[in-house]
Design brief:
279 residues, TIM Barrel, globular
Length: 279
């Protein structure tokens, strides 16, 4: 029997950050779920795992990673996968997710999520890695669309077509980042609504919302601001199209007081509730 609360992920959750451990544990705020940055909890013990287990006792969680490097030509890191599998067994997350990206080449790692060339060769490689990871972990992955600032001359398909094919080839699910698709759409000149309407209904299990920064001629995805109005508009369209999908407020830089995150989550919850009321 699990020692953790057994509830589905639903409603508007918040990304768990160490700054807010004590606030959450002492006050038990009315947050339906938390998302955890996977790599922060790969140790065998210590304070991060201690606090995570305390939070997990009262809330459902998801695991969200940046280190699987599924798009790399390198082989998957089996030590990484073993650590992830052990953490999942220990914490019992509802979902495990990573990105449509790569972060390593020849076993050398960069500190950013790099975009893929959307070619048949890249799709075959990415799909093989997703299948391998899912087989090793014994669970289905959620793959998140990235924010990007460059593309490749060689391409066979759009990003959304790549995702469509990936779901067919691997039976994975999707984490749809509304902020990321708005940022990428602005930077590359495609319509985020076209992307949204290409998503396979029933395969989007989680949504992310975050803030970007306006540069001179592009948008930079910093996850360090409140959600901007055009992203809220796109989120409304997303929920109208996909239904009330569990939604996360993601904030990674210049982390504000917990009350600010609660306020942002409340705005997302109102959109979700409006769809439930209209149903």
């Amino acid at each position: 029997m699990s020692r953790f609360i057994d509830k589905p992920v639903a409603g508007a959750g918040i990304g768990l950050r160490s700054t807010h451990y004590q606030t959450i544990i002492e006050n038990q705020p009315k947050v339906p779920w938390f998302e955890v940055l996977t790599e922060n909890y790969f140790g065998d013990g210590g304070l991060p795992l201690h606090f995570l287990e305390k939070v997990r006792a009262d809330y459902p969680v998801t695991l969200h990673g940046v280190g699987m490097s599924l798009g790399s030509a390198d082989s998957l890191d089996r030590d990484y996968l073993a650590r992830l599998k052990a953490l999942a067994a220990r914490i019992e997350p509802t979902y495990v997710s990573d990105h449509l990206a790569w972060i390593s080449v020849d076993s050398r790692f960069v500190h950013d999520l790099l975009p893929l060339p959307y070619t048949e060769e890249a799709l075959a490689n990415f799909a093989a890695h997703v299948r391998e990871a899912q087989d090793f972990l014994g669970r289905r992955l959620l793959i998140e669309n990235p924010s990007s600032y460059m593309g490749y001359k060689e391409t066979d398909m759009t990003e959304w077509e790549f995702l469509q094919e990936l779901v067919v080839l691997t039976d994975c699910d999707i984490l749809f980042d509304v902020n990321n698709v708005y940022v990428s759409g602005t930077n590359h000149g495609f319509d985020p609504i076209e992307y949204l309407h290409a998503l396979p209904k029933g395969r989007v299990k989680e949504i992310h919302l975050a803030g970007y920064e306006e540069q001179n001629n592009y948008l930079f995805d910093t996850h360090g601001y409140r959600v901007h109005p055009p992203v809220w508009d796109l989120y409304q369209a997303t929920i109208e199209y996909l239904g009330p999908i569990p939604t996360l407020i993601e904030w990674d830089n210049d982390i504000p007081p917990f009350e600010t995150l609660l306020d942002e989550a409340g705005l997302a919850q109102r959109v979700l509730d409006s769809m439930d009321a209209a149903a």
